[in-house]
Amino acid sequence: MKKKIKDILKQYFGYDQFRPMQEEIILSVLKGKDAFVLMPTGGGKSLCYQIPALVKKGVCIVVSPLISLMEDQVTSLVENGIDAAYMNSSMSYDDQDSVKDAVRQGKIRLLYVSPEKVVSSDFLYFLDSIDVSFFAIDEAHCISGWGHDFRPEYTRLHLLRKKFPEVPIIALTATADRITRKDIVAQLQIDDPKTFVSSFDRPNLHLTVLPGKERFQKILGYISKKPNEAGIIYCLRRKDTEKIAQRLRMNGVNAWAYHAGMSAEERSRVQQEFIHGKTSVICATIAFGMGIDKSNVRYVMHYNLPKNIEGYYQEIGRAGRDGLPSDTILFYTFQDVVTLRKILEGSGQKDLQLAKLERMQQFADALTCRRKMLLHYFHEYLDKDCGNCDVCTNPPEVFDGTEIVQKALSAIVRTEQKAPVSLVIDVLRGSRRHDIISRGYDQLSTHGIGADLSSEEWRQYFLQMLNLGLFFVAYEQYQALKITEQGKKVLTGKKKVNLVHLSSFEKRLKAEAKEKKKTKRQETDEALFELFRDARTKIAQRDNIPPYVVFSDATLDEMAREKPMNKIQFRQISGVGEMKLKKYGDQFLAIITTFIKERLGQDKSVIKGGTYQLTYTQYKEGMPVAAIARERGLKETTVYSHLARLIEEGYDIDIMKFMTKGVKKDIRAAIEKKGVEKGVKPIFTVLKEKVSYENIRLVLAEYKKELRAKGVFVE
Ligand code: ADP
Ligand code: ZN
Hints:
The protein has 34 helices and 17 strands. The protein has a seven-stranded parallel sheet, with helices on both faces. The chain has a six-stranded parallel sheet with strand order 8-13-12-9-11-10, sandwiched between helices. Helix 32 (661-674) packs across helix 33 and helix 32 packs across helix 34 (693-709). The site of zinc ion has 8 residues, from helix 16 and helix 17. Zinc ion binds next to helix 16 and helix 17.
């Protein structure tokens, strides 16, 4: 069975390896066990039910919450040559009936259904009449009021177990929260499911936190270096999403806003254009994201501090589902903390929410590996520092900040703990603002003692002090700053504090903006990647499917690096299954051939094995060896040695073009006598020097290839 599912993985999906847990889950589902699967966004949940659906008898019913998501999944499956369909209440009865007919005729392996549809009486009746292999409940956390995406329609799904006690259920989610987890299992009444919890680590995501000062310029600077890449910018407020999108558009970036205040049609249009690669950047409130499977989101930014780590992790998880390196950048300001606290003060579970916000702040202020902290939050432990977060790559430098802190705290005390942060900073900087003079603050001993720092620098130190718990903000008293016990200790000299050098952040920003120096070969590969991307866009537009459904970025990337020259090699690229080979193989191979010819005319060194590949290309075009040699200033023997190597590597070269059957037979007989280890010379001698060295070389190459195919080790 292991071999069978691995073959399916390659045949339909084009992948060579399972990701962690996938194989175990698939095997368990195949045994007919109920399963509960917890995997981070992008972990590869879909395959866990799609592969069993291809093996098991009957149709797999997949419950999925959003129509757009359903359509997307079905499109992807059909593109891979898998018979899948979806059904939801927005479809006409005729359309629904034809889907039902196809299912009854056994033509469908996977049927995606919305939660309200699946428990409707007519659908349950329909289910009675067909052979269901198992139920897969996607986004299963929607069933729980504890989760953050509660959907009332989901709560009726327990009917499935009641009506079809024999049919296995597999529930899948990315929500780690323990209460939610228990609730899902209880509500679905899957009593003793096999539970699979995979690691929440997403090592391809780079984590960075930056001060929010001049955020927009930083964002624009970043995006302008990757104009073709897709990204999401999450904001706290609707008006910010619109403002940022507009400013980005004014700067030539194709960006649009997405938030709950827009009409459903508008939202759906914006989302579709993003999915189809027509929009590069979405500026969104948290309402955006669950309905998309887009695998090539290359960066996720947070314009504001998120409310909690769960939300943050889910949002950054939308970057890099294809496994390629992707960036996440969080911007963070004093004002965000103030605003969020104010919002959460008025929320239902106030204490819990505030505690979660504090964890988020700790994360943003981390002086140790951020990934370690994140995973720890999800009860996982990472042995080593990750090496792929800003703290790892640009460790913050700290200094004894006691004096600065004392100045700040004393200004808070002198303003009788009645002033908000902006006023305290103005006093420190010696402002002669009207209200400072009218309150007599210009007479204070602290007035002007912090003039050596800019307001922005003070803001950043105040943020650090806030997070160190040296003071708090009294929201109900016009956001006045109040000193804590910890703060008092510092003020009276009983305690010292370290602050992070602000220059650390500047360095981090520079490191973030710095483009890694590329080798010539990388530049060449990128140029080829862009050609692939164009071809992919055209196909996607023609067939009206999302580009990443044609090929993922990861697949194009590998193609650009490996430059397959024939179908056998093309098929070895991860993400190329049988169907994709058939549909797109010729087109992409032609792009590679043309590209190699053009580039090699300029500089051979830029393509790995390029000179061999050019020989192959010219051979395929029917050029005789002598002509190839002449055109490129090579010796004919060199061209033959290229051909020999190409043969050994499995390129389709017909050696009968170079010799008669008789000669080939003689050479093979001589090889059998002399073996392959010693090379051409002894064979040449055995044949009494009657056949050419070149011909022996070609036959020898073919012979070696055959031996290897039989599993014999040949040097
Ligand atoms: P999830 O639903 O857990 O967020 P998906 O099922 O959408 O994740 O998978 C995320 C991406 O990873 C998809 O593009 C998918 O094709 C790809 N993927 C899944 N399994 C593998 C695998 N074994 N090898 C390579 N890519 C995979
Ligand atoms: Zn790290």
